[in-house]
Amino acid sequence: MSTRQIIYNASPTAQRFHASNAFRRAIMGPVGSGKSVMCVQEILRRAFEQRPDREGRRRSRWLAVRNTYPELKATTIKTWSDWVPEDVCPITYSAPIVGRMEHRLRDGTMLDLEIIFQALDKVQDQKKLLSMELTGAWINEVREIPKPIIDALASRVGRFPSLRDGGSSFIGIIMDTNPPDDYSWYYDLAEKQKPEGWDFFRQPGGLMRVGDKYLPNPEAENIANLQGGYDYYLRQLSGAKSDYINVMLCGEYGSLFDGKPVYKEVWNEQVHVAREPLVYLPGVPLLLGWDFGRTPACTVGQAAPNGQLRILGEYYSDNSGIRNFAEVVVKPDLAVKYGKYQYVSTGDPAGAAKGQANEASCFSELEEAGFVTSPASTNDPTLRIESIIKPLSRMVCGQPGMIVDPRCQRLIRGFSGGYHYQVVGKLMGGGEVKYSEQPLKNMYSHIHDALQYLGLAYNPNQQQAREEVIREAVKIQHQNARRSKNFNPLDY
Length: 492
What we know:
By secondary structure, this protein is α/β, with parallel strands linked by helices. It folds into three domains: 12-202, 3-Layer(aba) Sandwich (Rossmann fold); 207-249, no CATH class; 269-491, Nucleotidyltransferase, domain 5, CATH 3.30.420.280. Helix content is 30%, strand content 22%.
């Protein structure tokens, strides 16, 4: 073992965190509050407490997760190595990255701890977990990780060591995070659902707001371990945006977005978001826009008689096929809200391709689910975005050309910056920032793609053409319904 010694003094929140035996535990706090250190110490503590096998080895295997490999190396592994140096736990930088710690304890048993460092940031990354047999898992900065990853991990922990070798003394998942968005899955579980088997811990902010000033928070934790103490937080105030201060320094839930918002020049939340939920206009067909893939999305709107585009609803899933999504999520809710409605449905043209498993296209799957849908006229990103810029930019009878129901929170967050062009560098010869040519693919892009397909089907200047499209869509609906074994003439 290394002669290096660092004393760990658990904060009040850390003490409660370590005392919990919940299957899933999460700690949230501001930057610099020592959250990830708590998780490192928890892994070590549980490794020392693991019951020895017949050979006297206290064997455990942990998975440490971060959303990207650069972040994994720069933060997660660095924090681990700060407390468990490489001469104590050598790390092999292969695929995956693995650390191994073996140490003879005073009672004669051998500590044998293996830690695997893995980047997981997509729902599809669940397949990387299929063959893993783990004692526990640590998810660093869990706000960046899709919920299905946590769900998949639940079946992989508690599998090492095997029962014939004595089994695991500890089974569980520990998580740390800076404050996420207040409509994220984390917020929903921690503040609303509070499900059994989960423990959520929240540290005090480093700063607190008093009037129009930010002052040191006397309840803040880990101050003694920060360079300059409270100055660590205070010096970050200069030039910082209020959302950064509130989230990263005060530890409040909120949104932080990088890059350039796609609709920055035309979107105004005070103008384009209705103060009250929008009222459905009876007799006016619904406009449906669909995006496909394993993260399907659907937007619902109406073209008002005066030409205003009204966005009534949004639906999305982080892990679903399009048919199941349409049948289980979208269709029942539309029936409850709008009764026997007419609709015009438009989707991603790429959905015309046949699937590898059953040769069914997304459009045929939607038709089976009860939605006759046409491919959008184009998949050109510029034209799609322009279809939304136009109604956002104009006024109709003193009202905005497009208005969004306040319940469409993912769309609104996307408009406010979540749907954006990513920073890719700076232009030569100056400090001007260079952005990606297309919007970043993230949790906001799918619902906004769906909105754009809806936008391509909307034309406020061609009422007659739109009515003809509606009549043709209704005709097709009737024809398909008559061919269906579920056809009921009383529905028409």
